[in-house]
């Protein structure tokens, strides 16, 4: 299957994975193609009325509802601190606010105020 991946900057690219691929397989494909570190990737599937954080690496993409031409948002965990410590862990609890906070390129107003 071929999925669309979008980074918060608006950069979009396509990734081809097998139909039985896991979240881990998709992260590895992104790492290979785009040179983003696997362990920093956060994948969020855009659905019609909501979003799903795909946080189980061993789950098949189809478990989350990913199919051909699905739209996936790519976020990043912060890099390790200067002393080589582990990546920080945090909880993403509201992806709807991410989707609702888009700014109109025409008016400059947020989507919430339109």
From TrEMBL:
<dbReference type="InterPro" id="IPR040610">
    <property type="entry name" value="SNRNP25_ubiquitin"/>
</dbReference>
<protein>
    <recommendedName>
        <fullName>Ubiquitin-like domain-containing protein</fullName>
    </recommendedName>
</protein>
<dbReference type="GO" id="GO:0043130">
    <property type="term" value="F:ubiquitin binding"/>
</dbReference>
<feature type="domain" description="Ubiquitin-like">
    <location>
        <begin position="1"/>
        <end position="74"/>
    </location>
</feature>
<dbReference type="InterPro" id="IPR000626">
    <property type="entry name" value="Ubiquitin-like_dom"/>
</dbReference>
<dbReference type="GO" id="GO:0031593">
    <property type="term" value="F:polyubiquitin modification-dependent protein binding"/>
</dbReference>
<dbReference type="InterPro" id="IPR029071">
    <property type="entry name" value="Ubiquitin-like_domsf"/>
</dbReference>
<dbReference type="GO" id="GO:0005829">
    <property type="term" value="C:cytosol"/>
</dbReference>
<dbReference type="GO" id="GO:0043161">
    <property type="term" value="P:proteasome-mediated ubiquitin-dependent protein catabolic process"/>
</dbReference>
<dbReference type="Pfam" id="PF18036">
    <property type="entry name" value="Ubiquitin_4"/>
</dbReference>
<dbReference type="GO" id="GO:0070628">
    <property type="term" value="F:proteasome binding"/>
</dbReference>
<dbReference type="GO" id="GO:0005654">
    <property type="term" value="C:nucleoplasm"/>
</dbReference>
């Amino acid at each position: 299957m071929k999925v669309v991946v979008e980074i918060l900057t608006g950069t979009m690219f396509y990734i081809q994975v097998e139909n039985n691929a896991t979240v881990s397989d998709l992260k590895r494909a992104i790492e290979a193609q785009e040179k983003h570190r696997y362990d920093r990737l956060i994948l969020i599937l855009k659905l019609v009325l909501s979003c799903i954080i795909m946080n189980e690496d061993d789950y098949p993409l189809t478990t989350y509802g990913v199919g051909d031409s699905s739209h996936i948002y790519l976020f990043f965990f912060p890099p390790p601190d200067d002393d080589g410590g582990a990546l920080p862990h945090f909880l993403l609890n509201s992806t709807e606010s991410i989707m609702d906070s888009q700014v109109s390129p025409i008016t400059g107003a947020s989507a919430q105020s339109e």
